[in-house]
Specification:
This protein is an alpha/beta fold. The chain has helices at residues 19-33, 40-51, 57-63, 65-85, 96-100, 103-113, 131-136, 144-156; strands at residues 4-9, 36-38, 89-94, 118-122, 139-141. The chain has a single domain, classed as Rossmann fold. It contains eight helices and five strands; from the N terminus they run E-H-E-H-H-H-E-H-H-E-H-E-H. Strands 2-1-3-4-5 form a five-stranded parallel beta sheet, sandwiched between helices. Helix 3 (57-63) packs across helix 4.
Length: 159
């Protein structure tokens, strides 16, 4: 059974930085499956609250490239460490925002390299998903309900 799940997907180019789907999925995973969940939105919020209070991160990209790069590097380090050291499943929501950014692709690559399962949820046509991303995935679901049905199965029988 999966005990620690990382929620991967677009942030930089996503509406609300992808908070809605992550919040809903985190609540479900914790409540229904008893999983520990790493939600990058919450971790980013915590980092900014504790280390960069009042910093408009997205604005920095246009005003202070070096400071932006240094903060982005910290975020990358946190996320990579979480996937490598604590997560045993990556759930990725692949949409136009994930396609546009780079972080999701990097997260999937790390998970694949470390032989951790990557379950992709997407409505994007298969032929429009980059081959690299497909090569990193172990399962593909058309929606979150199909993924949840599969997670319920794993609650009964370990993978």
């Amino acid at each position: 059974m999966f005990t620690s799940v990382y929620l991967s997907g677009g942030m930089e180019y996503a509406a609300g930085e992808g908070r809605d789907w992550r919040r809903k999925m985190q609540e479900w995973l914790e409540g229904e499956c008893g999983c520990s969940v790493f939600n990058p939105n919450r971790e980013s919020d915590r980092l900014f609250r504790t280390r960069f209070e009042g910093v408009d991160f997205r604005r920095l990209k246009h005003e202070d490239a070096e400071r932006y790069r240094l903060i982005a590097s910290e975020l990358v380090e946190i996320d990579c460490h979480e996937i490598a050291e604590r997560s045993d499943l990556v759930i990725c929501y692949w949409d136009a925002s994930a396609q546009r950014g780079a972080g999701t692709k990097g997260e999937l690559t790390i998970a694949r390299y470390l032989r951790k399962p990557v379950w992709l949820v997407t409505a994007v046509p298969f032929t429009d998903i980059p081959g690299w991303v497909l090569g990193c995935t172990t399962r593909i679901f058309g929606d979150f309900e199909a993924l949840k049905a599969e997670m319920r199965k794993f609650g009964e029988t370990p993978p």
